[in-house]
Write a sequence for this structure.
């Protein structure tokens, strides 16, 4: 079997960061890793309790998920995202695997054109490349000269924290429908708005109550510290979610039943989200002040779990500068050429590590 479709994949970017992480570890007191956005705070007790109580799971789960889970998330989406009640739903094994697999699962290949943002989570491109589709990097898909099959948007953005306006979302949806283009919106940081309020592609204010061609991607990894549970979901156009459900049944893609119950507990516990938001807000304030005092300029960073910062130099020079101070940050060019002078700095470190990073930035 030919494996040529994989030849276009880039080197795994995090391997390039390893020497700088090693240098940071040599700093007195060790490294403060602000590169990977891995939650460090406890998973809510309500979620842990649900997991324990449903750990006895001798039977197979279904690909479609527990009916009560779908109902729980539809209620949450109507309240939080402003979605219509008839949205389709599909649980996924985290969100990275579905983002990477979507072009292939949707039958795309050579001749299809997938648009990703100018600064973007790398897996959008990886999924298109793995399917054999062409990748176009632009924030203006309307200007692509080829018929477009699929557009990825990401608001709040990873890595920049930028939020797409309601007006821009509505404009993009109007264009996509006129050209029969699917729009997938990665909204995994939706509940972490700081200086701007994110708007979902499912919101009736931007789609008029019509979800045709629109799908949102959501996760519990960040808002509920459940990265280890690998829970995510797709919601939107029922024709798309139903089509994907049929394919995933054949592939045996099933989410453990106890994880599904734990997810229900998370979506029924808004207080835990409020507590975690307050923790991240405090860390964000400390880091932004320290970075500004150290001569960094901060752009966007209106929402999400990252600060998008620059010293006006090549991103790897900034990575080196920070590594010499025992801090690991992610170079902006991991996310595209437009990030070449930026670094992404994560809020997902303990209070003690954030304090250490701020102290090091002051010297």
């Amino acid at each position: 079997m030919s494996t040529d479709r994989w030849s276009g994949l880039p080197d795994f970017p995090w391997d390039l960061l390893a020497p700088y992480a090693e240098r940071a570890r040599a700093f007195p007191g060790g490294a403060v890793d602000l590169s990977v956005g891995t939650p460090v705070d406890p998973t809510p007790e309500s979620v842990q309790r649900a997991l324990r109580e449903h750990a006895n799971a001798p039977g197979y789960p279904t690909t479609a998920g527990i009916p009560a889970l779908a109902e729980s998330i539809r209620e949450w989406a109507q309240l939080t995202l402003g979605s219509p009640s008839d949205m389709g739903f599909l649980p996924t094994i985290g969100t990275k695997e579905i983002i990477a697999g979507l072009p292939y699962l949707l039958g795309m290949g050579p001749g299809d054109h997938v648009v990703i943002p100018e600064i973007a989570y790398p897996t959008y491109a990886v999924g298109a490349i793995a399917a054999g589709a062409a990748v176009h990097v632009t924030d203006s898909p309307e200007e692509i000269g080829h018929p477009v099959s699929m557009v990825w948007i990401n608001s709040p953005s990873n890595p920049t924290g930028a939020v797409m306006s309601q007006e821009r979302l509505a404009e993009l949806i109007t264009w996509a429908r006129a050209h029969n283009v699917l729009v997938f919106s990665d909204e995994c940081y939706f509940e972490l708005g700081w200086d701007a309020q994110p708007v979902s592609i499912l919101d009736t204010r931007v789609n008029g109550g019509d979800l045709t061609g629109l799908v949102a991607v959501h996760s519990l990894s960040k808002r509920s510290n459940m990265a280890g549970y690998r829970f995510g979901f797709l919601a939107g156009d029922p024709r798309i979610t139903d089509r994907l459900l049929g394919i995933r049944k054949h592939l045996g893609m099933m989410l453990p039943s106890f994880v599904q119950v734990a997810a229900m507990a998370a979506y029924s516990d808004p207080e835990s989200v409020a507590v975690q938001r307050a923790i991240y807000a405090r860390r964000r304030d400390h880091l932004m002040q320290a970075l500004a005092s150290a001569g960094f300029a901060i752009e966007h960073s209106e929402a999400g779990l990252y600060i998008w910062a620059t010293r006006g130099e090549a991103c790897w020079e900034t990575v080196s500068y920070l590594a010499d101070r025992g801090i690991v940050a992610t170079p902006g060019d991991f996310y595209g050429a437009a990030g070449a002078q930026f670094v992404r700095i994560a809020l997902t470190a303990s209070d003690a590590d954030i304090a250490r990073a701020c102290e090091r930035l002051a010297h």
Summary: The mean pLDDT is 96. The two ends are 56 Å apart (CA to CA).
